[in-house]
Amino acid sequence: MTTLDTASRRRGSLAQAMARPRFLLTVWPWRALLHSVTTVVVGIAVAVVALPLYLPWAMVLGTMASRPWDTVRIGEPALIGFLVGLVMIAVFSPLIALPLGALERRRLRIVFAGPVDSGHRSPPPGLWGWVRTRYTEGATWREAAYMCLLLPASGLVLLVLVALGGAGAVMALAPFLLYAEPDTAISLGAHAITAPEQAIPLALVSPVLLVLLLYTCGTLAQGHAVLARALLVGPPREELRAELTEVTESRARLVSAFEYERRRIERDLHDGAQQRLVALSVDLGLARLDLEKSSEADHRVAAAQAKANDLIDELRGLVRGIHPRLLTDRGLPAALAELADHARVPTRVDTEIPGRLPTHVEGTAYFVVAEALTNVHKHAEATAAAVRAHVAPDDGPVPDTLVVEVADDGVGGADPAGGSGLTGLRDRVAVMGGTMDLSSPVGGPTRIRVELPCGPIPPTPGL
User: Is residue 458 domain-resident?
Assistant: First the structure.
């Protein structure tokens, strides 16, 4: 059980209070009554504000109800009215539901002691970012559904308040009313009370209606609270933060395990298969010394030696692709310079990295630049490219950030959905907790900017 759950139980709740004999001696009945009264007020206000949204449907239903049932036909006017109402609700109901949800979460605190976080995501800057976020998240439409349910719920609460509260008030004040107005009478079905002394039993029974009113309001408020929690309240921020921390640590352990496995494969290829191929090439060269030059056997052995050398070069490229030895030995600046030397497009490299960075940061930055330069050669039709890498120091406990930028003067128009490898690149950066921005208008230039936090990754247990 979380700390929040324990704290909520310690403070109690309306349902727990109603189950105790001393319920009427606590503050909970009056809080439930206050919640019921404000429910009616909010419901009336929402009905007035949202009336234009439901007016097309109300007009269609009113027209159909005014005719005899056997003459009602659903034609184009009714369908048009229904569609217009549906569009208005889809477009404008979130604008009413969002502030209503914020108000109802505050009002929920009257009868609920737990956390009441909204569950909304933080929208990106700008009006379009806000609209796109709010209209596409489930929390907004749950609030819209709550707005629709609030109208009949507030009507039910109003009926209870008027019936029980009004009857109790009349019964309690009946002797005073008859004393002040002797010619009046209070009708109770077939009986009529005309004298003050006859109304005294009613006044004595009126507290029963008050008790019934308080328990009924408590039941309605508790049901309303359950509905509001289901539709308006998201997971507590502390719970979300704990889940995010767990996911981050799990992701970091996976990255660490992946780096360990990749280094093991690189070491096995470099120290095992590659060395055996080199030895095979040397043996073939020695075998040629014992053969007659330009003979058929010499040509075959020479061809086999050439194939072995080609395989060695291919294997070295594979090992370099898994994790370049230069990156391990001399760090990111030297590895980026080597990438630029092997690039098909003239590439300028500018690095401002004062020292060695964490291994996972260097590896990710290297492969980002390698993939970006490959895309420049394959898709950009560029004549020049530039790579810049520098460390941006951050104040406080936040680790430094490695910023890598790759730009070219090509035709632009790079699209992550076009299969250019940019989607995988973005995913690889995201695994490391970094961000990637792409700017590639049609006609160029294209610029990729990657930011990688230089904080450590927790080691994988057992490695």
Answer: no
